[in-house]
């Protein structure tokens, strides 16, 4: 869970009762550059509409943006803004649960009670969105490589085909798994009981189930991974870092 508190002084919260959560309704826009406009509403967990629970990295808390919630200008971190823009739909509202806005961070009792039901919040979400941040460092290429592996997965020949690709293509996947998101302590709790998980990076996205298969590919060849790393001019640590994500992926996909 991200403890992002920059918004709390400008948004008024009514105390949540037992079994209640706040959901952020993001209104649609056809333009990616349009400002985010939404409303916070309270529901019981048993009667909540289908919602997406966001899992994201805090980012630089000094990098602040602003969105409109219930008609009020509300400051949030730029990393959260990227996540909201990524998930906003073009033609219909979307319900979102995100700790920074759905919990009154200034109310210690509420914070503790919501943390206590965090597993339920994420497990009852229609989907969990793992938001890695904006596109950068060849992330688009990384998704293309992973999708190619997923579509062609065959332990008899895919490895040789993949290694024959340009080093930059493989390195793009390694770079994707080096993002600060994967170092978060809350990742396992947020995805472990999820019904479905989708990984987003800029405009690219892929089901965690499919990324788990890609990680199976790396894990399958872990016996020769150091030689593979040297062939591609990686350090073994970089290569192992990619393989170890298999443990996260398998937990979320199970």
From TrEMBL:
Domain of life: Eukaryota
Pfam families (alphabetical): HET
InterPro entries: HET (IPR010730), HetReg/Transcr_Mod (IPR052895)
Annotated ranges, domain Heterokaryon incompatibility: 51-190
Transmembrane feature ranges: none
Protein name: Heterokaryon incompatibility protein 6
